[in-house]
Amino acid sequence: PHFELEAGDSSGHTLRAVRFSSKSGQYAPPLGDEKMAAFYRARRRFSELAHDPKYVMSLQLKPGDLLMFDNQRLLHARSSIAPTDGERWVQGCYLDRDGLWLNYERWRRRAETTE
């Protein structure tokens, strides 16, 4: 898993994003043998926790349903398709976080100068 942090208050950093895929090998940093073994133990443990049924929420969406979430703050996946499920059609829509903050800052500064 990759954890992206941003500077927080005096208590330290806050979590900005989590990226994890149990299906891909993902990035492994160049580490010595002991640290590499510890890295993979931690990665396996994270995967076990992420797939533990007590931490998993499942929903069955129906045609017309909309599910919105922050792709960088919520681990998510799709289940396998059962023969009784019918066709699956999922449409993704993505927002550029940096672009949103840039425009917010522009409008905030513009509003300050007109006050």
Biggest sheet record: 2 strands, antiparallel
Principal-axes geometry comes out as: flat
If strands are numbered along the chain, what order do they take across the biggest sheet?
1-2
Oligomer: single chain
Low-confidence stretches: none
CA-atom Rg in angstroms: 20 Å
In DSSP terms (H or I, runs of 4 or more residues), the helix count works out at 2
- Helix/sheet category: alpha+beta
Task: Please write the string of helix (H) and strand (E) elements.
Answer: EEHH
Helix content: 25-40%
Gap from first CA to last CA? 46 Å
Mean residue pLDDT: 84
Number of strand elements: 2
What percent strand? 5-15%
Would you kindly provide a written description of the structure presented here, covering whatever features stand out?
This protein is an alpha+beta fold and 115 residues long. 32% of the residues lie in helices and 11% in strands. The protein has two helices and two strands. It has helices spanning 33-51, 97-114, and strands at residues 2-7, 13-19. β1 and β2 form a beta hairpin. The mean pLDDT is 84.
Short description:
With 115 residues, this protein is α+β, with helices and mostly antiparallel strands. The protein has 2 helices and 2 strands.
